[in-house]
Design brief:
Elements lengths: L2 E11 L17 E3 L1 E6 L2 E7 H7 L6 E12 L1 E3 L11 H8 L4 H6 L4 H10 L2 H17 L2 E7 L6 H17 L3 E6 L13 H18 L5 E2 L10 H13 L3 E6 L7 H7 L4 E4 L5 H10 L2 E4 L1 H6 L7 H6 L4 E3 L13 H10 L5 H8 L1 H6 L17 E4 L6 H4 L6 E6 L2 E5 L1
Parallel strand pairs: 1-5, 6-7, 7-8, 8-9, 9-10, 10-11, 11-12, 12-13
Antiparallel strand pairs: 1-2, 1-3, 3-4, 5-14, 14-15, 15-16
Helix pairs in contact: 5-6, 6-7, 7-8, 9-10
The structure holds N-(iminomethyl)-L-glutamic acid (NIG) and fe (iii) ion.
Length: 415
């Protein structure tokens, strides 16, 4: 059996926990100075002080991994991305730099609709190929679990093609993929003014096919002014829940519609974006244990005010952070960028940021019992950094300091 001990660390930051951390708890990151981690098979067997670990476990029976006096921590979890898509929108990015508005571009048939066209044209193989390459890049940043959404099909065949691409990638890439069905991501041109009928189509034709073929774990919707309203979102998500999917929501991103309140009402796993969330929405998320997933890359690229993560944590929410990697509003998979924005512009502490990118992101994917921290019994998804303190993560601005990535107990990446 695969048996390893990671030793000679400056610290093991465990982020220990089997439930999400709310409010102040986000600062508890469980540091063990000069810690060591025992791995057996794909799982973590033990974690503790190095001296105690070596008293208890016989060195000779283990492959020893020398951390070089540096920090060891859980793998990052990117819990909100749209990493499978055809084509790019570099032209649109230049228009936005010139002052064009993201939603205006969508209304003109660009934006998401333009990626829908390219994704329809791409073959399944092309989507798998480009999706895998994007995950290769994420692995370099230390991401060991990622969420991916459909939503660039809008029709039955293309949605299924996107979901199948993720299923295939999940089988053949070290990173675990949690799959979300985002059928109602935009209103197709031929459904303009008939949004209710499009929701009917998603509920009657697409959802059952997704569920029957076991192609997604979560359902999501773009609940936004000019896209799908609260009533349409509620109807779609309720049906999805009845059919056995867990729920997520693109909520209160551009206009305050009450998406966070809806997420709480439906006991969604997470509400995401939340740039415009109301005070009531914050309270409801905290009360119902809905994870508040914040995506500062999107606010940065759209030059919007950042979501008020500080307030959410102070009011007792469990905050997660993610990249929102997609070809439009946030074309980045850079974890260092997300850390920098969260630290410098959202006033989150280094400890809160770590929790948000590990344990709470695992919770946003309903996987908090299997990954997201260095705890016995969990998957051995572990990073060795190039510096002796986790505080270098925000301090070394925008730079990737991940040196070694261990996924399911195996070294899968060395930078
Ligand atoms: O999370 N807001 C809606 N959906 C994506 C953007 C998708 C795109 O622009 O292609 C988001 O930001
Ligand atoms: Fe998104």
């Amino acid at each position: 059996m695969n048996k390893k001990i990671i030793y000679n660390t400056s610290e093991v930051v465990t982020c220990s926990g089997f439930k999400p951390k709310f409010g102040k708890e986000m600062n508890d990151i469980g540091i063990i100075e000069n810690g060591a981690v025992v791995i057996e098979g794909e799982k973590i067997k033990a974690v503790g002080k190095e001296t105690e670990i070596f008293d208890k476990y016989n060195k000779d029976e283990y492959v020893l991994i020398d951390a070089g006096g540096k920090t060891v921590m859980p793998g990052f979890i990117d819990s909100h991305t749209h990493f499978v898509f055809g084509g790019y929108r570099e032209e649109e990015f230049s228009w936005r730099l010139r002052g064009d508005d993201y939603m205006d571009i969508l209304r003109r048939g660009g934006g998401i609709i333009s990626t829908v066209k390219s994704t329809k044209e791409a073959s399944l193989e092309e989507l798998i190929e480009s999706g895998k390459k994007r995950l290769d890049s994420m692995l370099e940043f230390g991401v060991t679990t990622v969420e991916g959404k459909s939503g660039y099909g809008l029709d039955l065949d293309t949605e299924i093609k996107q979901l199948k691409a993720m299923e295939e990638i999940n089988k053949n890439h070290p990173i675990d993929v949690a799959v979300t069905f985002l059928g109602p991501h935009a209103v197709p041109q031929d459904y303009k003014g008939r949004e209710d009928e499009f929701i009917d189509f998603q509920i009657e034709k697409v959802l059952p096919e997704v569920v029957k073929n076991n192609l997604a774990e979560f359902a999501d919707i773009f609940c936004e002014e000019g896209v799908f309203n609260i009533e349409q979102s509620r109807r779609f998500l309720r049906e999805a829940k009845k059919m056995g999917l867990k729920l997520k929501l693109h909520a209160d991103e551009i206009v305050q519609l009450g998406g966070a309140e809806l997420a709480a009402e439906l006991e969604a796993v997470s509400a995401d974006h939340l740039l415009q969330v109301s005070d009531q929405g914050i309270k409801d998320m905290a009360d119902k244990g809905v994870i508040s997933t914040l995506l500062p890359g999107t606010a940065f690229c759209l030059k919007e005010e950042y979501a008020n993560g500080r307030k959410m944590i102070d009011e007792g929410c469990a905050v997660a952070l993610a990249t929102d990697l997609n070809p439009g509003s946030s074309f980045t998979n850079s974890i260092p960028l997300i850390i920098a924005l969260a630290a410098l512009y959202m006033n989150l502490s280094p400890e809160e940021i770590l929790t948000a990118l590990t344990l709470n992101s695992a919770a946003a994917l309903d996987r908090v019992e299997e990954t997201g921290s260095i705890d016995p019994g969990k998957k051995a998804d572990i990073l060795i950094l190039d510096y002796p303190s986790y505080k270098f993560l925000p301090y070394y601005v925008g730079v990737n300091i991940v040196k070694t990535v261990i996924k399911d107990g195996k070294i899968v990446q060395k930078n």
